[in-house]
Design a protein that fits this description.
4-stranded parallel β-sheet, binds ligand L6N33NVT, alpha/beta, 347 residues, Rossmann fold, Ferrochelatase, ferrochelatase activity, iron, Ferrochelatase_C, binds fe (ii) ion, metal ion binding, 11 helices
Length: 347
């Protein structure tokens, strides 16, 4: 029988330093997140980052935590439950890090008689630190514990027409009653080095954008290319003028150069340029989470207003909205019926 495995990033058990620490430990010790040699990663993570960051992150998590738990987990569960209502196949939800493990989700599917799994990483764009690490982990667990199961992965859906439509409609919805001068598409950042590492040609990606209009197989795994494609397609769908839209990258860690422009610098630049009413959309995330609710909706607003902005709105992620649920249900049901994937690297 066929079944569906949805995988998102995961959250700590609670917004306390005690619970944030093991979560960050697992997350940042992932060789696809901090891709230094193991001895150096161990030194950086356990010797430096984990000494101070859990306390700081716990404070941020406490600001956005819900009675039911982490917004990312709760919203992903609501989404999975709604997708389940639209398909006969069993649907399970796992997280790459934390207690809601991928192994348990695969076991849940197995217990329901599933031996053919459609894996859907809940990331619209391919990055080694998000999409790729999910795929690798699922295949590791499958090979070790569920060798009889087959796994097919839905590719990154950043430019799929149904996804673009659902995202664009959610923006229209979010902009009701909000007068804006500018819409900022703020994507989670990654180190520039990761772009080069993920380029199978080893020479295509130049990071500066000069490569992105030249067709290449590199784009299938180029996060930068993919996020700019999402912006362009939404811009076209909504008929937005060039000068009213821009893209930027948030949530960087200290150290290496990360993709630019940086969202916090953009808040200041846009306010100074007279874009006084700013709408911010965060399409790298399908579910609201720490990075959208705290960094963008709270901190971002403060930064923009301090720089001279007058009005600010974070447009929520698609979360469990009906249109997005229906898109996902269509993709998984098409796969069940035909064995074909609605999303391919070229769609
Ligand atoms: C869009 C997908 C994501 C990519 C790509 C990504 C890369 C990436 N992240 C870190 C470090 C941290 N990210 C943190 C939180 C976080 N990251 C994503 C998604 C992507 N990360 C999400 C959805 C969340 C929120 C989780 C939640 O519980 O709500 C954190 C933890 C919080 C903090 O301490 O700031 C860290 C750390 C790196 C280093 C990286 C690429 C190399
Ligand atoms: Fe992150
Ligand atoms: Fe490029």
């Amino acid at each position: 029988m066929k079944g569906v495995l949805l995988v998102n990033l995961g959250s700590p058990e609670s917004p306390t330093a005690k619970d944030v620490k093991p979560y960050l430990d697992e997350f940042l010790m992932d060789e696809r997140v901090i891709d230094a040699p193991k001895w150096l990663r161990t030194f950086l993570v356990k010797g430096i980052i984990l000494q101070t960051r859990p306390k700081k992150s716990a404070k941020a998590y406490a600001k956005i935590w819900w009675d039911e738990g982490s917004p990312l987990i709760v919203l992903s569960e609501r989404f999975a439950n709604k997708v389940q209502q639209h398909t006969k196949m069993p649907v399970a939800l796992g997280m790459r890090y934390g207690k809601m493990t991928i192994k348990n989700a695969l076991q849940e599917l197995k217990d329901k008689g599933v031996d053919e799994v459609l894996l859907v990483p809940l990331y619209p764009h391919y990055a080694m630190s998000s999409f790729e690490t999910v795929v690798v982990k699922v295949l590791e667990e499958q090979q070790q514990y569920f060798p009889e199961m087959g796994v097919t992965t839905l590719p990154a859906f950043y430019k799929n027409a149904d996804y673009i439509q659902a995202l664009s409609e959610s923006i229209i919805d979010g902009l009701k009653d909000f007068e804006y001068d500018h819409i900022l598409f703020s994507y989670h950042g990654i180190p520039e080095r990761h772009i080069r590492k993920s380029d199978p040609t080893r020479f295509h990606c130049k990071i500066d954008g000069s490569c992105c209009k030249i067709n290449s197989v590199a784009h299938n795994t180029c996060y930068r290319h993919q996020v700019y494609d999402t912006t362009e397609m939404v811009k076209a769908y909504l008929g937005l003028p060039e000068e009213q839209v821009s893209s930027s990258f948030q949530s960087r860690l200290a150290g290496d150069p990360w993709l630019k422009p940086y969202t916090d610098f953009e808040f200041v630049r846009l306010a100074k340029e007279g874009k006084k009413r700013l709408a911010v959309i965060t399409p790298a995330f399908v579910s609201d989470c720490l990075e959208t609710l705290e960094e963008i909706a709270m901190e971002g607003k403060e930064q923009f207003m301090e720089a001279g902005g007058e009005d600010y709105k974070h447009i929520p992620c698609m979360n469990d909205n009906e249109a997005w649920v229906k898109v996902m249900a269509k993709w998984v049901n098409d796969w069940e019926a035909t064995g074909e994937l609605a999303v391919t690297p070229s769609t």
